[in-house]
């Protein structure tokens, strides 16, 4: 039960970090998700009946199953390499990801140029329209 709760908390933290906009938080969320997956893989191997890695040849039921451990070791290596790749992308990448941060751009109609003249008045003066 403890392994399941820990994996659930790690997944919840990963989802929270994935919802953030910064790349570093997404990477940290990926790390949490990888650790949760490792816990799930180990739990699938049976945490209650796991013994020492090496036992006596006479009683093979006391020996720990090496397959979940091999899966977790492989998952750790893959998660580490993907994490390094994402960190390199975060460091060398540009900040122009073309995503909206929730702020609306100012309307060009509302802006006033440095000389205090509204842009519509400039266009009207160029066309010879007087008001």
Task: Give a summary of the structure in a few sentences.
This protein is mostly helical and 131 residues long. The protein has helices at residues 2-18, 23-44, 66-92, 119-127. The chain is rod-shaped.
Characterise this structure.
By secondary structure, this protein is an all-alpha fold. It is 57% helix and 0% strand. The protein has a domain at 2-92. The chain has helices spanning 2-18, 23-44, 66-92, 119-127. It is rod-shaped, with a radius of gyration of 29 Å.
Biggest pleated sheet: none
Alpha-carbon distance between the two ends: 78 Å
**SS class:** mainly alpha
Radius of gyration: 29 Å
**Helix fraction bin:** 55-70%
Strand tally, please? 0
Order of helices and strands: HHHH
Mean pLDDT reading = 78
The number of helices is: 4
Estimate the strand proportion. under 5%
Shape: rod-shaped
**What low-confidence regions span 5 or more consecutive residues with pLDDT below 50?**
none
Write the layout of secondary structure elements.
Blueprint: H1 2-18, H2 23-44, H3 66-92, H4 119-127
List key phrases describing it.
131 residues, mainly alpha, 57% helix
């Amino acid at each position: 039960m403890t392994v399941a709760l820990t994996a659930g908390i790690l997944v919840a933290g990963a989802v929270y970090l994935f919802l953030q906009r910064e790349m570093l938080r997404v990477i940290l969320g990926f790390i949490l998700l990888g650790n949760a997956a490792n816990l799930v893989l180990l739990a699938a191997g049976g945490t209650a009946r796991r013994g020492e890695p090496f036992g006596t040849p006479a009683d093979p039921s006391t020996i720990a199953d090496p397959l979940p451990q091999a899966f977790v070791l492989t998952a750790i290596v893959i998660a580490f390499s993907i994490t390094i790749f994402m960190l390199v992308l975060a460091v060398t990448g540009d900040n122009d990801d073309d995503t909206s941060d929730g702020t609306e751009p100012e309307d060009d109609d509302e802006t006033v140029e440095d000389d205090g003249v509204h842009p519509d008045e400039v266009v009207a003066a160029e066309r010879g329209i007087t008001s």
